[in-house]
Give the backbone structure.
Amino acid sequence: MKISILLLALAAVAANGAWFHHRRFRRGTQNEFRYCIAEELMGDCNEMASQTTKSPAKIVCIAARDRQECAEKILQREADVGVVDPEDMYIGKTMKNQDFQIFEEIVTLEEPEAEFRYEGVAVIHKDLKLEDGIKSLKGLKSCHTGVGRTVGYKVPITKLKKLGIIGSLNDPELSPRENELKAFSTLFSKACIVGNWSPDPKIDTKLKSKYPNLCQLCEEPEKCNYPDKF
């Protein structure tokens, strides 16, 4: 069933993901809830909203480009609630005049008490000498499972930022995704980070042209997308 796709998407949020809403939202006192969801899941969200339940509350699905835009829609009162990851909560905290609140934590049924579901492991060649530890990564080549993926993208960017290997990710002139890509591009000489760097094909092409070294190690650098054997 299509409805399962949406439910699985929500369940796939990291164990410390959460539901977001603005402070004036009063859970249990509204008959209509404007739920912000990614554009590609709108069909599934509308199907879920059409299901008959015992609750008199009605769900209205609000489309957004990504979780960042959902936060902006919630801030502007164009939506009431949405699902976010930890990094989104941090970004939300830095938004001007923000008044967000977290009212529900999302965990997996299998590991309800776990802080995370799995950890990433970086694999290097046995003959590679990292004389200065992790700082020696500067200028090396790197392969990732894909843009936005947890182990191959989110975990590395978070760890590298925490260790001070990469600098600020808060350039206001750049989107959150481009801040991350710029950091990877500056750190590694060549890499392969496949996937859609933006839901907008024009922006996706623009970013891949701007940071071409992040596609140089891919099977088809000019495509830099799935499927890719590397």
